[in-house]
Amino acid sequence: MTRSELNAALAQRFPQLMQKDAEMAVTEILGAIATALAAGNRVEIRGFGSFALNYRPPRTGRNPKTGEKVAVRGKFVPHFKAGKELRDLVDTSQTSGALLR
Q1: Per-residue pLDDT reduced to its tens digit, 10-58
Q2: Cα separation, 92 vs 18, whole angstroms
Q3: d(C-alpha 99, C-alpha 90), whole Å
Q4: Are 30 and 5 members of one domain?
Q5: Which tops the pLDDT comparison, 92 or 59?
Q6: Parallel, antiparallel, or unpaired for β 43-45 and 49-56?
Q7: Does 20 lie in the same domain as 69?
Q8: How far apart are the first and last CA of the chain?
Q9: Taking CA 38 as the corner, what is the angle to CA 35 and CA 39, rounded to the nearest 5 degrees?
Q10: Does pTM top 0.90 for this prediction?
Q11: Which domain holds residue 27?
């Protein structure tokens, strides 16, 4: 599901919302999550999952073109861990054949 599909689904689910209101709601929610992560905070949405930062330590990489060693600095990367309810829902849907790839 893309961002525009999410906006459309939200507007369809809540008819009192105009399309622009649904877009603004999605933008604000995602923005709040991104801002919290940028500040180093963990974001937990009960029943859905949690967003946190994982640290990747510095390492030595290689330039694939030349084979030359390159120092790659450490960095923080966003990480999502699905909550139990979401995992159970996905597992149930997969085993019943409801989700198609």
Answers
A1: 999 999 989 999 999 999 999 999 999 999 999 999 999 999 999 999 9
A2: 33
A3: 8
A4: yes
A5: 59
A6: antiparallel
A7: no
A8: 12
A9: 90
A10: no
A11: 1-41
